[in-house]
Amino acid sequence: MYVKITNGTPERYTLRALRKDNPNTSFPAEPTAALLAGWEVFPFASVEPPAHDSATQVVEHNGYAETGGTYTDVYVVRDKTADELAAALATARARMRCSSMQGILALGEAKWGEVQTYRETAAWSERMIIDSAQDWHRTSAKIQFIGYLIGFNDEQMDTMFITASEVTA
Questions:
Q1: Residue 152 CB: number of other CB atoms within 10 A?
Q2: What pTM was estimated for this model as a whole?
Q3: What is the arithmetic mean of pLDDT over 49-69?
Q4: How far apart are CA 149 and CA 143, in angstroms?
Q5: For 40-167, where are the alpha helices, taking DSSP H only?
């Protein structure tokens, strides 16, 4: 792989592209670095992006740097913005699912008992919500309602779903 400098900006490039871009020029099978430099083409050595915490950070490609005639990738690690963190959390929550049995076991007898106690005096529509919640989806209105009944906040609901996903019943 190579880098071609066009108007001062490096971009990835191949020998095949060099030959295609210059059909009336004959290039040797293995062109020398000096020959390529005359065409503003330089060797490229790929580097791995730096280690980072993908939950809270983003790695961005920030162009290329030249060292000793060879170009390499330049990466920048930055913290995720509040919007990116919120979007990641929303995506994670949308993927959280468990069976009703897993959810009930993760809640435990006392918390599920609170739901059942409420159910005894609930309106018909609320009883239907409780009774029909077979597959629990973290973002569903039915599960939000159950979370409300037992007084769970978003973090507690997340923890409950994580716990439920580990239950084998």
A1: 18
A2: 0.64
A3: 93
A4: 10
A5: 82-95, 100-121, 124-132, 141-150, 154-165
